[in-house]
Design goal:
With about 240 residues, the protein is mostly helical. The chain has 8 helices and 2 strands. Helix content is about 70%, strand content about 0%. It has a two-stranded antiparallel ribbon. The C terminus is likely disordered. It is found in: Cell membrane; Membrane.
Length: about 240
Amino acid sequence: MIEIFNTVLYYPLFNLLIWLYNILGQDIGLAIIGLTVLTKLVLYPLSLQAIKAQKSLSTLQPKIEELKVKYKDQKEVMSKELMKLYQENKINPLSSCLPILIQLPILIAVYQVFMKGLGSEGLENLYPFVTNPGHINAVFLGFLDLSKANIVLAILAGLAQFWQAKMMPMAKPTVKTPGSKDEGMASMMNKQMLYFMPLITVVIGASLPGGLTLYWFLTTILTIAQQYFYFRKGKESVGVEAVK
């Protein structure tokens, strides 16, 4: 299993990073930026699918709330009606989690690259067509050591994640009945996650190599840009329809 992970993810990502390091002036920070952009491009269709699913689920939230109130004592019927609602609107509620599940092993592979791949012994895993630089300089822009934990990068990653979550539309309960307590609880949990996850990012990021934290920060920034253009495009489409 480990060998499969190394063959499919670790070795390709490591070799891509070193190849970028060689062609970008042997600056590991620039290589990480290049690696982040390339992996984000590969995952672009999945990321877009997740954003669409999150927005669609938010739009459907009032209807979901009504179903939970209507069938509050009929859990099985409510589940069937929810699935019917998802199918009618062509929404897979799990699709918003798919990019995260896919990106997790990539993140682990990048972590392995920084933990054991940047030493001289790690360079033995280079493909024949990738030039061995002999030594990896972990300093970015001449002063930022990406082999060590960096609290500033960790804070930036946390702030970026908060910004990303804040951009996503959150449905507000429209049915004020005792049967909608579950929705109130879900809304409260969403708000807690909005602040809790960025805090966890800062705490974990402060203990990881700065290169990995930089990768996570840049990935989040690119996701924010993707969300911005998608939501902007949606608003422009609504505006055109209104004019018609």
